[in-house]
Amino acid sequence: MKNLTYLFTLILFYSIISCQAPKEQKVEEQIKFEVMVKNIQMNGKNAEVFNLKNGNGMEVELTNYGATISRIFVPDRDGNSGNVMLTYNKVEDFVTDSYFFGATAGRYANRIAKGKFDLDGQTYTLATNNGENHLHGGEVGFNQRIWDAEMLELEDAVGVKMTYVSADGEEGYPGTLTTTMTFILAKDNKLSIDIESKTDKPTVVNITQHGYFNLSDMKEDILGHEMTIFAENYTPVDAGLIPTGEIAPVAGTPFDFTTPHKIGERIADTGSGYDHNFVVKKEHDGQLTKMAEAYHAGTGRVFTMYSNMPGVQFYTGNFLDGKQTTNGVTYTKNYGFCLEPQFFPDSPNRPDFPTARLNPGETYSHKIEYVFGVR
Predict the structure, then answer these.
(1) Is 340 assigned a catalytic role?
(2) Is there a catalytic annotation at residue 210?
């Protein structure tokens, strides 16, 4: 009897151990990262690819070439994971990128009229790389620099911190600007992006993320996506997409997304498509705010974007021209949408807009959150 009791106890012990082992394995795999060095070099630095996984079906691929988000995989309502960002076949292709796929745009995202602005009585001249205007930091913006990068392992998240020092006079901007971008992937399918900059001279700063999203698994364009933008005003633009200075109500216009509308429902009434700044807040109060939400009925995916900036640029891929094919999918007009939280375009020339000025001793702080779910 004692032998039987001993045998039963032994079997029970090993049964418990064998049941626990998979649980321990599962915990170890919940949050992890991979790092690969790619064949891109600049100023003696190598480009790297960081693959973050949260164990809840979400995966984020980043590269320190341009502090770029190259892919985001999220599950649909059936649990099938798919990439929701326009991208290239390989990271090396970002070197010749002209669309700003997944890019960090800076020093000044969006447009500055005629590539000029005045600061403390001095006129600064920038590259005019978008017709007669300056766009997304110039000829060689933040999206074309190799950033220093380090992995961050947190208790319930994993991330990457990237740093770039922009020299005084780079692309015509005053001041040596030190910028850090911290990307954190959490278990609840939230990607947080914290951007901080400091300068040694008065300057202007407007840094944002320029990812193109398509929630359909790239099976269709974005015109059928349902969009909500929590803004009662927008900034009308001239033919060069420079704000006229007016802050106009969206009510009664095709720019009214205060209630959900399909992107393609009224896009023809805008002329060339949406490429406009929406005024979420008329003042920069620094508070994180729910700015926009996109929904794709076919997959059930929901994408919600938060930021502490006063505005968000809604862009519908109007300049996608079918010249890029990735994984067999050709990116034609309206194949992706961008939601770029920001100071308003041309703010350095518009004293009535929230100021993008940064002084020594101050910190530019921009927080962005991408949250994915299903319904």
Answers:
(1) yes
(2) yes
